Amino acid sequence: MGVALPLIIATAFWGIIGAGGPFLVPRGPHRGIAQTMIILTAACCYLFWLLVFLHQLNPLIGPQIDVKTIRWMQEQWGDSNKHAPHY
Fold first, then answer.
1. pTM
2. Which one is predicted more confidently, 35 or 57?
3. Where are the domains of the chain?
């Protein structure tokens, strides 16, 4: 339920904004443009939130290097901290 609840809440929130927002626009010559902007804004915000949410479920983390391998690399390549200039 840890993944489903935020997904349901965000979907419902942006669905309400996208479906109900256009009915709140007052009548006028540019009503259709304002309604389109509200729907597109809700869709884009939802998609952005969804992509960030899904990315956090499976983050891309670099390979985990064993401590022995790190020490071997330091022996073979040298310790870069010793020769780095300090400003």
1. 0.64
2. 35
3. 4-80
